[in-house]
Amino acid sequence: MMTLWNKGWRPCLVLLLFFLFWEVIARVQEVPAWLLPAPSVIFKEAWTSYPLFLPDIGATLTLAIIGLLLGSTIGFLIA
Q1: Are 52 and 44 in contact (CB under 8 A)?
Q2: Which sign, positive or negative, has the C-alpha torsion 66, 69, 72, 78?
Q3: Which domain does 57 fall in, by range?
Q4: How many domains in the chain?
Q5: Residues 32 and 54 placed together within one structural domain of the fold
């Protein structure tokens, strides 16, 4: 577990700094929300709209898995 943490803290820090930079720039520069909303606005909207998307998640996952299996099969047969 410790080696996983040692390997993974840098990418997590970069991602956190990216979101922090984006948030600060969006608020300080007063970027219009329709152009580039702050990450906090995006996450809040995703959290409140989650029940609207829940019924469609199954269909999306099914199509993604079918596409993966079909593409893998075709690739395997061609190779």
Answers
A1: no
A2: negative
A3: 49-79
A4: 2
A5: no
pTM: 0.65
Residue 44 lies in a domain: no
Residue 19 to residue 26: CA distance in whole angstroms: 10
- Domain membership of residue 27 (yes or no) is yes
Is the Cβ–Cβ distance between 38 and 27 less than 8 Å? Answer: yes
> Quick check: helix, strand or coil at residue 40?
helix
Choose the weakest-confidence range: 45-49, 64-68, 72-76: 45-49
As a whole number of angstroms, the distance between CA 68 and CA 51 comes to: 27
With beta carbons less than 8 A apart as the criterion, state whether 20 and 39 touch.
no
Residues making up the chain, counted from first to last = 79
> Is residue 42 domain-resident?
no
Q: What are phi and psi of 4, to 5 degrees?
A: -65, -40
Where does the pLDDT of residue 3 fall: very low under 50, low under 70, confident under 90, or very high at 90 and above?
confident
